[in-house]
Amino acid sequence: MEALRNYLENMFANLPNTPEVQRAKSELFQMMEDKYTSLIEEGKKENEAIGIVISEFGNLNEIADSLGISNVVEHPQGIERRHVSKEEAHHYVIEKSHCSFLTGLGVFFCIISPALPSLFEDALPEQLEDALGGAAFFGSIAIAVALFIYSASKMKNWSFLKRYPCSIDYQTADELYKAQKLNNSTKTLHFIIGVLLCILWLIPVSISDALVESSYLADNVMPCIMFLMVGIGVMLIIFSLGKDKAYTTLLGLNDQKTVAGNYESTKSREVVYSNETIANIMSVYWPTVRCVYLIWSFLTFDWLITWIIWPVAAVIHSLVKKNFTEVA
Fold it and tell me: What Rg value do the Cα atoms of the chain yield, rounded?
């Protein structure tokens, strides 16, 4: 029956999402289901029964009149959309996840770069100390830039998802929806660990100040550990959001005005804002919050205070969603 369900959804995918069309789809599925059950009871094998049902009910143009949707079928509305296959969709998720990791790794190298020169201070002759410190700093930045460029070039292959109208079929959407739900626990774990690392960097520094007598360890190594913890934390946060963003992008491809955009179990949960200005602002809201948090934190080093930006930002986001969203 799942095969018949998938076939039916693909038949109606590009038709407008109206009560009339939904009623016709429900009636046709009932007819297909009754015919299939009857054939199975007659002793037909499953594949044979599915083939007979499709041959009898599979041409929407022939049965549109009896379903009362001939006008809709004969005069389809909307624009032609590029079909994204199941294989392409899963490959996009893999590449998006991989590139999110590389981007996070690039941010990690950017964050730790100011701390690397301190490892060579008071440990080597001054000229060698300056040379190695500068090499470590600029080398870290160079690696970060290379990772950014490489990940951006890889994702360029998928720019058509935003530049052109695209669609996915029911089976692909259903698999993506289930995969996104399974990924939620991993995403949450990575995000929580990332946030904790960004908040708890002070613990090893405080312990070293209290217990470690070596000035080199306290003044040079521990600051590096602080930047290392924050860098890993931010990297995990970026990585945790990448794969989920891929699922959301794919599940939002179908035109919301068609049947394909209203699959009950696979409908995109992306928020639709009623005001265009608010929508533009909110599209860059969380990246802006992250940038403000990092800039404020690294300029003031008041990490015990700057974390307050996250609950405040969450409250603002919640209020905006409550007052400026509409049903998709």
Answer: 27
